[in-house]
Amino acid sequence: EEEEKEKPRFAGIPEGLSVETITLKEALALFALPRTLGSYEGQALKASIGRFGPYVQMGKTFVSLPAEFSPYTVTEAEAISLIQSKAQAATAATLATFEGPEGDIVITEGRYGPYIKYSGGNYRIPKGTEAASLDLASCMALIEEQRKNPPKGKRGGRTGSKGKKS
After folding, report:
1. Exposed (0-12), middle (13-18) or buried (19+): which is 33, by Cβ within 10 Å?
2. pTM value?
């Protein structure tokens, strides 16, 4: 009969501290993450440090914490304001919405310019075309054109030599 053993927990040591200089109190504080801050819109608010730095999470929404905030000290109110500002930015990026045969057609302002989101795919809007002036028919025409002629992918290069190593 094997007893259930508790798995050991691990925490990364932040910059400025080393294994030689860290105190027990500082080490135990590192295990405080992920920190539950409260709830917002019926979902738990959590603060933690991930692969890309500190963040706040609400459901499936993740917001990076600016440098002036720490996941150890960020408050519920600060986290809510960060999540609200991200939601407002996403709403502001939407230029137009139409009802299409396979679902909504959304014209969005993206990192590389405006594009169309439709039926799980993204379709670029050609340069010189005014995104705000597009209507349902012109969106469907762009989508059909790009479905027939998908953009050519980058050509694959050689990843290694085929000869023997000596």
Report:
1. middle
2. 0.64
